[in-house]
Amino acid sequence: MVITVTLNPAMDKTIAIQDFELGKVNRVSKLRYDIGGKGINVSKVLKKFGIPSACTGFIGGSWKNTFKKELRNMGIVNNFLEITEDTRTNIKVVDNKNKIYTDINEPGPEITEEELNDFINKFKSICNEGDIIALSGGACPNIPKNIYGILTKLAKEKGAFVILDAEGELLSEGIKEKPDIIKPNKHEFEILLNRNLNSEDDMICEAKKLIDNGLKKVLISLGEKGAILVSNKMVLYGKGLKVPVMSTVGAGDSMVAALIYSMLNNFDDEKTLKFAVATGAASVSLEGTQACDLNQVQSLVQKVNINVRRN
Ligand SMILES: Nc1ncnc2c1ncn2[C@@H]1O[C@H](COP(=O)(O)OP(=O)(O)OP(=O)(O)O)[C@@H](O)[C@H]1O
Ligand SMILES: [Mg+2]
């Protein structure tokens, strides 16, 4: 089974306001709600790829039932722990006239110690040998920063495979338990290493150190420039594809789904990177956080140029 973890999901409330004015009364012309969060995004793309998955993390309060309903409609297994406080609402103000897009994100609910323990126990009970676990995104403010380390350790003890896509302390603490794959973007990788990475060689050199330390693969995403994949066998650079860009939100999450698809289809490193770069490109060419489908990705895969260097 594939399990995606979203510790601090959000109800994304997108409001369209033509000519948005600060400090004035603004009228909303269009309104939509989408359940959101990085692990959920991974599950949505997997669903489009024909791969079933379960979502876990924390949901609570007034949005709880909407999340459950939406997940059911999408055919994604709901394994969230229900909590007392409200799942947050993130507001996106879309002003198409001035082409200004504003995000207003809430911090998220407070998780009690008992809820945290219940979640860890739930995670332990749903995680099995051979599972693929994607740990994605931020956490509610009072969650310990080593949460991904705790979950990685538990998953690996069960014989599951772990992909970590997080930033800051959640990544630096999580990495201590040696997840199998990490997928930082360049900025997240620089923060992890506490230095600027000025060249591809610099990034490759740092990724190799992590591989020597026990990680299986490091996938560094470089936005429109593409991505670098370092494993214990290969160093590969996949050049980004030129596509019409509608929304870059969730491109990294699609890439995590592409890694999972590649694993389940036994792709080698080269095919994995091609597929991941194509999935990222397919994702940015769709509006909002819409998930790309397999046909869209397959039409792009052949166009990805890979530069191979043996390790
Ligand atoms: N403008 C773009 N044009 C073409 N491909 C893109 C573009 N932006 C992203 N991609 C593709 O998507 C992949 C992931 O993008 P990016 O590096 O922005 O991830 P990210 O910063 O983790 O995003 P997020 O966390 O918001 O999902 C890139 O490696 C690339 O293949
Ligand atoms: Mg990302």
3D structure, described in words:
This protein is of the alpha/beta class. The chain has one domain (2-6, 37-87, 110-310): 3-Layer(aba) Sandwich (UDP-N-acetylmuramoyl-L-alanine:D-glutamate ligase). 36% of the residues lie in helices and 25% in strands. The protein contains ten helices and 15 strands. It has helices at residues 38-48, 64-74, 113-126, 147-157, 168-174, 186-193, 200-212, 251-264, 269-284, 294-301; strands at 2-6, 10-16, 30-36, 53-60, 77-78, 81-83, 88-95, 100-104, 132-136, 161-165, 181-182, 217-221, 226-231, 234-239, 306-310. The strands form two sheets. Strands 1, 4, 5, 6, 9, 10, 11, 12, 13, 14 and 15 form an eleven-stranded mixed β-sheet that branches. A four-stranded mixed β-sheet has the order 3-2-7-8. α2 (64-74) links the parallel β4 (53-60) and β5. α4 (147-157) runs parallel beside α5, α8 (251-264) runs antiparallel to α9 (269-284) and α9 (269-284) packs across α10 (294-301). The model has no long low-confidence stretch (mean pLDDT 96). Bound molecules: adenosine-5'-triphosphate and magnesium ion. The site of magnesium ion has 3 residues, from loops.
Topology:
Layout: E1 2-6, E2 10-16, E3 30-36, H1 38-48, E4 53-60, H2 64-74, E5 77-78, E6 81-83, E7 88-95, E8 100-104, H3 113-126, E9 132-136, H4 147-157, E10 161-165, H5 168-174, E11 181-182, H6 186-193, H7 200-212, E12 217-221, E13 226-231, E14 234-239, H8 251-264, H9 269-284, H10 294-301, E15 306-310
Parallel strand pairs: 1-4, 1-9, 2-7, 4-5, 4-6, 9-10, 10-11, 11-12
Antiparallel strand pairs: 2-3, 7-8, 12-13, 13-14, 14-15
This protein binds adenosine-5'-triphosphate (ATP) and magnesium ion.
Residues 185, 221-224, 226-227, 240-241, 243, 245, 248-253, 255, 277, 280-281, 284 line the site of adenosine-5'-triphosphate.
